[in-house]
Amino acid sequence: MRDVDGNFCNGNGQLLPETGEQYAAQIARERASVRPAVEVEAEDKRAYVSITHGMRGYFAVLLTWDEECGCHTPWNSGFGSFATSEAAHPEAKAWAESEGIEFRP
User: Would you identify the CATH topology of the domain 42-104?
Assistant: First the structure.
């Protein structure tokens, strides 16, 4: 899409680069500025179980370390869906214990 001046833009009026190479360079600059390279200790990369909230309510979630983004990301979720975080606590704690990993409420 083009704006009234003929520049490429998205539906929100944000200007976009004219070529794929320019767009790739813009994305690379944005990614480099978002997360500085930081060394994370090995024990901080261990998987853990926690509780989160989504469309299905509160539920247990297993988070594992993702080297690409440099953070923990959801890997799997528990079976139950609960109305409160407190109600999800027993399933999450039992899951962590059965896996032999940390539970972080």
Answer: Ubiquitin-like (UB roll) (3.10.20)
Q: pTM to 2 decimals?
A: 0.61
- Residue spans of the domains in the chain: they are 1-34, 42-104
Following DSSP, what letter does each residue of 10-55 receive, concatenated? -TTS-B--SSHHHHHHHHHHHHHHHS------GGGGS-EEEEEEET
Q: CA-CA distances (angstroms) from residue 68 to 8, 13, 42, 101, 105? A: 31, 31, 15, 22, 25
Mean pLDDT of the chain: 81
